[in-house]
Amino acid sequence: MLTHCQVPLIARAVGERGLISQLLGPKYGAFIVNGKTEPGLPPLASIRQIYKLDCVNSHTKIFGVVSNPVGHSKVPLLVDDLSEFFRVYSCNDFAGFSVGLPHKETALACCHEVDPLALLIGAVNTIIRRPSDGLLIGYNTDCEASITAIEDAYRGSSVNGRPPNVSPISGKLFVLIGAGGAGRAMVFGARSRGARVVIFNRNFERAKALAEAVSGEAKPYDGFRPEKGMILANSSAIGMEPNEDQTSISKPSLASYELVFDAVYTPRNTRLLQEAAEVGAIVVSGVEMFIRQALGQFKLFTHGLAPEEFMRKVVLEHF
């Protein structure tokens, strides 16, 4: 409406889906932006301070998080139908996208070109619109982010006895819960480091398909025999706000794991991680993966190195 209107217009969109219209209003000529007076919107002062609306103009490039739910993200693009979203928002000003649940696998088919690693994994978490021709290029930064977070946690602990050139997860049993886009990135990364892989998922056929892709095993929850020194990685949404009381595995079972990683980062210290620490496991928060994948995305978005120290400070203050 703002783009095509020939006279001054006040546009009000409310709720979660309305936030992005307020953030981008100045770009498209709006002279009034709504704040908390409308349902689902943050205070106006917060909008101005965080998003610097005084600096937004018609030349502003847009980089946002495409997900559902997406309320926990700072530049939220609440999307139900990913292909329809890209069809509608096709101009070069929509320059880059961080892809979240549940779209990481669907995003693969929406891209005109896909980086070989993302193609191998079968999931995309980063999309760039190439300025020269407007084509969508897909990448995956989740893989290295999750695996290096786990490796560095091992290297900083007393249980790592591997030489510097050998991954501390090589030869270990990597147990994955969840078989979605983030989980695919994790197990492909784990296999690339020499780990053995076992996958649990509520949809057993989906777990089997992923296990076959990485030469791993899919197991039913009641048919698994633990072994010493295992790694547990939760890639499901179990334990995410507002369901912080939930966990993907019982506390007694956690005693079999040497390291526990949880991709959930809201809250930062999930029930799974709290109980894993209580039984003596090394714990790795999803916030660490979140930061590392964002560092990779920043480089793809800007072609420059991210201000890592500043980004860590901001993220850790937020969470």
From TrEMBL:
This is Shikimate dehydrogenase. PANTHER family: BIFUNCTIONAL 3-DEHYDROQUINATE DEHYDRATASE_SHIKIMATE DEHYDROGENASE, CHLOROPLASTIC-LIKE ISOFORM X1, SHIKIMATE DEHYDROGENASE. CDD domains: NAD_bind_Shikimate_DH. GO terms for molecular function: 3-dehydroquinate dehydratase activity; shikimate 3-dehydrogenase (NADP+) activity. It comes from Salvia splendens. InterPro entries: Aldolase_TIM, Aminoacid_DH-like_N_sf, DHquinase_I, NAD(P)-bd_dom_sf, SDH_C, Shikimate_DH-bd_N, Shikimate_DH_fam, Shikm_DH/Glu-tRNA_Rdtase. SUPFAM superfamilies: Aminoacid dehydrogenase-like, N-terminal domain, NAD(P)-binding Rossmann-fold domains. Residues 169-218 form the Quinate/shikimate 5-dehydrogenase/glutamyl-tRNA reductase domain. Pfam families: DHquinase_I (PF01487), SDH_C (PF18317), Shikimate_DH (PF01488), Shikimate_dh_N (PF08501). Residues 286-316 form the SDH C-terminal domain. GO terms for biological process: chorismate biosynthetic process; shikimate metabolic process. Residues 80-127 form the Shikimate dehydrogenase substrate binding N-terminal domain.
